[in-house]
Amino acid sequence: MKVKSKVWLEKRDKLVFGEGKSRLLKAINQTGSINKASGKMGISFRHAWGYITAIEKRLGFKLIERTKGGKEGGGSRLTPAGRKLVGNFDQLASALNKFTDKKFKEIFGGQCRGIKNKQKQKRIR
């Protein structure tokens, strides 16, 4: 048995940012392209674009720097504010997961050992 937890950010009771949007921004930064990042994540460019504009509108700042194509080709990358948002979100999610795991072990520790032992006994037989 294990515990799962999720964290997301809201503003005025509306979802602003969560794990999926964080993965999208990381993929954009890695690939240098909203189109490549959306393909990598299995979502349409339009869907990815909608996520980005909604987040930017709700937060009031730009997350992505976009350059138009041409001789050098276009691309996208995170703004300093976008990198900070992703980094802070990852830090919060990591701290929450560590806390949740610790509390889970404190509260369910004995029960978890019993379940694991029963599973091992079944495999041995």
Task: Describe it.
By secondary structure, this protein is of the alpha+beta class. It has one domain: Orthogonal Bundle (Arc Repressor Mutant, subunit A). It is built from four helices and four strands; from the N terminus they run ββαααββα. The chain has helices at residues 19-31, 34-41, 45-59, 80-124, and strands at 9-11, 14-17, 64-67, 75-78. The strands form two sheets. Strands 1-2 form a two-stranded antiparallel sheet. Strands 3-4 form a two-stranded antiparallel ribbon. A hairpin with a 7-residue loop joins strand 3 and strand 4 (75-78). The two termini are 21 Å apart. Residues 116-122 have low confidence and may be disordered.
In short, what is this structure?
This protein has 125 residues and is α+β, with helices and mostly antiparallel strands. Helices cover 65% and strands 12% of the residues. The chain contains four helices and four strands, in the order ββαααββα.
CATH class: Mainly Alpha
**N-C termini distance:** 21 Å
What does the largest sheet look like? 2 strands, antiparallel
User: Helices and strands: which structural class?
Assistant: alpha+beta
**Structurally, how many domains make up the residues?**
1
| CATH H-tier superfamily | Winged helix-like DNA-binding domain superfamily/Winged helix DNA-binding domain
Element-level helix/strand string: EEHHHEEH
Average pLDDT: 87
CATH topology: Arc Repressor Mutant, subunit A
